[in-house]
Amino acid sequence: MKSEIDIVTLSKLALSGKEADIRMYLAKAVRKLRTTDPETSKKIEALLKDNPARSNEVLRKSINDNHNSSVLGTSGDSAIPLLKSFSDNIANYPSPILSTSLEEQLSQIIKERKHAQVLSKLGLTPCSSIIFQGPPGVGKTMTANWLASQLQLPFYTLDLTAVMSSYLGKTGSNLRAVIDFAKSHPCVLLLDEIDAIAKKRSDDADVGELKRLVTVMLQELESWPSTGLLIAATNHPELVDPALWRRFDLEVSFSLPSTEQTTLAINNFLGDDLEHFSHWIPLCIQAFKGDSYSNIKKRIHKLRKMRILEPNSFEKQIIKNLLSNTETMTRSERIDLATRLVLEFKTSQVKASELTGVSRDTIRKKLKENQK
Ligand SMILES: Nc1ncnc2c1ncn2[C@@H]1O[C@H](COP(=O)(O)OP(=O)(O)OP(=O)(O)O)[C@@H](O)[C@H]1O
Ligand SMILES: [Mg+2]
């Protein structure tokens, strides 16, 4: 009879010194042994729980990923190759820019953790499952990572879209293995793009596989250990099954940055170049209206590179670059912009008219009005 634990595989893993892989293998074995040998299953489970992961070993540095992420998994079908663990300097993970209400919600989560013992005396447990929703590039993944660093827990992320596309048919068991692994020690597990599996069950495209996955998730959410934190993230809250949504302890909504947050983000992303760009910040704020943090970061980095690489045409380039959204502006916004270009940025009236599509006559008229 084939044993649930393959001694050769286990030896290989043990000798390779990869703790994360050993834990994952054992977590899978615990589930399998539950029916065939419950006593051994319990013993291994206890061992996993009593020996929390030493983060240095669990978190391996990646050679080729600039996020310092590594992909956990062994070779063959026991792999969970899509589970990434992040080893960015955990203690110093940069804090995201947050709205006041978001900041309050997150500090509540941290506070509950820190006072878990006091809470448990009253039969209360800290929040252990959260769903993040919001448009792309506003800090859902970043905030999950930051929370892990604040709680000093290892951080793992599983992109469910990737899991779905590569492992259809085996997704259920892969998801289970990831969940077992995450439950075996205190950590933060981010299930990214949860809508990929959590589509409303009425959706025609949903086949049995998706339904089974939702069921797995529902069961797991009920029993997520309060020493760990499960975070799910989605850009499409409307696609997530309400039955699943309700099971999360907390819902956190992220939004596009306000003008104040855009200003903070610009200042942050300018880094050491802040001084060189101070003149352009008002124009940047206007130009980045409606952009996500991640787009703002990209645009600022592009400008910073331009300043170094094209110093002679920098002024012309930056104006052109920042004014790429004039088509979506209202006429009065364009007129305002044209006059500001002339007054604040010393652009010629001809150039301002060309860049904004506002006639020179209108610009002149507006300038005269301003002088009155
Ligand atoms: N609130 C924020 N404060 C500071 N930087 C941010 C913020 N949000 C996003 N960024 C920047 O944009 C990058 C991408 O953000 P992140 O991956 O967290 O977005 P997301 O909301 O998870 O997007 P998606 O829905 O596409 O997964 C971050 O690495 C960071 O550099
Ligand atoms: Mg994300």
Describe the structure.
The protein has 372 residues and is of the alpha/beta class. It folds into two domains: 55-253, P-loop containing nucleotide triphosphate hydrolases (Rossmann fold, 3-Layer(aba) Sandwich); 259-371, no CATH class. It is 55% helix and 9% strand. It has helices spanning 7-16, 19-36, 38-50, 55-58, 100-114, 116-121, 140-151, 160-167, 171-183, 208-222, 242-247, 259-270, 274-277, 281-287, 293-309, 314-322, 331-344, 349-356, 360-371; strands spanning 69-72, 83-86, 129-133, 155-159, 188-192, 229-234, 250-253. A seven-stranded mixed β-sheet has the order 1-2-4-5-6-3-7, with helices on both faces. The N and C termini lie far apart (95 Å). Residues 54-80 have low confidence and may be disordered. The protein binds adenosine-5'-triphosphate (ATP) and magnesium ion. Adenosine-5'-triphosphate binds next to helix 7 and helix 15. Magnesium ion binds at residues 140-141, 192, 233.
Write a brief caption for the model.
The chain is α/β, with parallel strands linked by helices.
Index terms:
Rossmann fold, alpha/beta, binds adenosine-5'-triphosphate, 9% strand, elongated, 372 residues, binds magnesium ion, 7 strands
**Which CATH class of the largest domain is shown?**
Alpha Beta
DSSP strand tally: 7
Could you tell me which ligands this complex binds, including any ions or cofactors?
adenosine-5'-triphosphate, magnesium ion
Strand content: 5-15%
How would a crystallographer describe the biggest sheet?
7 strands, mixed
Radius of gyration: 26 Å
